[in-house]
Amino acid sequence: MSDEQQQQERQLGQIEAGQLDWLFPYRPSKDTKQLNPIVLAYIGDAVYEMAVRQYVISQANHRPNHLHRESIKLVSAKAQARNLQKLVPFLSEEEADVVRQGRNTKSNVPKSANVNEYRQATALEALFGYLYYEKRVERLRELVELMMSEEDVSIKESEAVVLDDSK
Known about the structure:
mainly alpha, Ribonuclease iii, N-terminal Endonuclease Domain, Chain A, 61% helix, rRNA processing
């Protein structure tokens, strides 16, 4: 076995054991808890997008146009707000704090979304960024499975997505 193959096997073992820090070797410049929620949402958006793409590819139809259309349905602010509502009952106090901070962070809202949906989407992305930088991959997987499950059909697009601001 060549040195390169041994290195690849060693890295694969480290990934499986959760010993590698992140997918890529660039650590954040600050501790996760010191990062601005918008920064967490920035990386969380990419993590969420990757989860959605993997989910869509796991389905039967792999035509590029179909993959794109299905992904768009799941990454819109409305869909992210809906998915956050699915997760709220399962969040720890720490995770709920990250969501609150992400939701309350001021940012420019695009014309394609209403303010409430956009803030909820930012909150979800901040949560994903936080968990990613905290290396809580298993928790990310749990939340993605909860979001993608078809079991909870009680949450509809028309329902309000408001979280408690009391903290």
